[in-house]
Amino acid sequence: MQQAAKIVSITFTVIVCIAGSYAVFPPSIKVCSRNDPELNRCITESVNDLRPRLATGKISDEFRIPPLEPLALSTINMDRGAEFKATFSELLVSGPSKFKIDNLKVNTEKLIYDFNIFLPKLSFKGKYDLKIKLLLLNIAGVGDLTGVIENNHARVKLMCEKYTKDGKDYMRVKKLLVRIQIEKGRFDMKDLFRGDPVLSQAGNQFINENSRLFLDELTPGLERSLSDTFKATANEIMQQATYDEIFPA
Fold first, then answer.
1. Residues in a beta bridge with 85
2. What per-residue confidence (pLDDT) applies to 227?
3. Which residues fall in a coiled-coil region (predicted)?
4. CATH number, domain at 118?
5. What's the pLDDT at 22?
6. In sequence order, which residues have a C-beta less than 8 Å from that of residue 150 and are 6 or more positions away?
7. DSSP-based three-state secondary structure for 164
8. Does residue 16 contact residue 32 with C-beta atoms inside 8 Å?
9. Is there a domain that residue 25 lies in?
């Protein structure tokens, strides 16, 4: 699920650098003037145009980032108390490079970035370990996981601030708000109920027939995970350049 955090991190970094004419970015990135009366539209188009390069991670011969296709993820833990504990690991995700951003609003004076991300379809496989209560049924298991989630929307609002280090001004994320909507999903978890084939099939069927409830249980933990992961990742990236380098006078 952390694929969205990485997408948000990369997207935000590109947005900041495009808006600020970041000098080290290659000519393959269309730079938008800070005085452009349609700055929000210009940045949105620039980021969306970069999607094929973001998929491979090759922005130019000299400039590379981790590829979005496929996206390998580390362990994700979710804990909503005794009735919902889940761990997902060794995840490999296909489809994140199809993201689109829209409704972007940039306030360069207050350092506020507000935008939508849409992900049409994400297919994933990996490992799971969960113990949940869904309606009146207790479901538990450890094994292989495959699945698809479709029509994924995220609204992201970032509030940044300047700070001084070694006599120079830098920028960091002060607060991040993210709200996620997943329209539908389908999951296949092997070895539910300790591998009992009948109960495992019944458990998967029950989860998929009640996928809305399952996704609603996942969403709050996912939002917290995205917020924490993205904030740390974005701040790690932004500390590499001073505020004046990102937003030259």
1. 79, 131
2. 72
3. none
4. 3.15.10.30
5. 46
6. 120, 121, 122, 182, 183, 184, 185
7. strand
8. no
9. no
